[in-house]
Amino acid sequence: MDQRMTTTTFSLPGHRVTRNLGIVRGVTVRSRGIGGQMMAALRTLGGGRIDEYIDLCEVARAEGFELMLQHADKLGANAVIGIRYDATELAENMTEVLCYGTAVQVEME
């Protein structure tokens, strides 16, 4: 699916929804390796940006997004609207990231 056919809004400019295929989601669970955890812990002593966790969040969100697109493809969607992210801490240093939206078929207006 073309990533340009995704949006956090509930419509795509210049297109109309012709069919709603339902909710699609991509779920991933990620954790930082022990080395990254140690570096992040050291960085917290000085305060500021913690690149190890920023990188982890970016990878997890990208993976959840890609899994959601794969789910939408399986349903025959050519767009996903209303995209949202959610995250839940499952255990210390382990986070679930969920990307979800509504799979739809759209056509040009």
Secondary structure topology:
Layout lengths: L14 E17 L2 H13 L4 H25 L3 E13 L2 E15 L1
Antiparallel strand pairs: 1-3, 2-3
Characterise this structure.
- This protein is of the alpha+beta class and 109 residues long.
- The protein has a three-stranded antiparallel β-sheet.
- The protein has helices spanning 34-46, 51-75, and strands spanning 15-31, 79-91, 94-108.
- 35% of the residues lie in helices and 41% in strands.
- The longest helix is centred in the middle third of the chain and has 25 residues, at 51-75.
- It has two helices and three strands, in the order E-H-H-E-E.
- The two termini are 19 Å apart.
- It has a domain at 3-29 and 61-108: Translation Initiation Factor IF3, CATH 3.30.110.
- The radius of gyration is 17 Å and the shape is elongated.
Proportion of helical residues: 25-40%
Shape: elongated
Mean residue pLDDT: 86
**CATH class call of the domain at 3-29 and 61-108:** Alpha Beta
Radius of gyration: 17 Å
Number of strands: 3
Biggest sheet descriptor: 3 strands, antiparallel
Which ranges are low-confidence, i.e. pLDDT below 50, for 5 or more consecutive residues?
Answer: none
Structural class: alpha+beta
CATH topology title of the domain at 3-29 and 61-108: Translation Initiation Factor IF3
CATH architecture tag of the domain at 3-29 and 61-108: 2-Layer Sandwich
Strand content: 35-45%
N to C succession of SSEs: EHHEE
CA-CA gap between termini = 19 Å
What is the tally of helical segments? 2
In the sheet with the most strands, the strands line up as 1-3-2
Say which CATH homologous superfamily of the domain at 3-29 and 61-108 is assigned: Hypothetical protein apc22750. Chain B
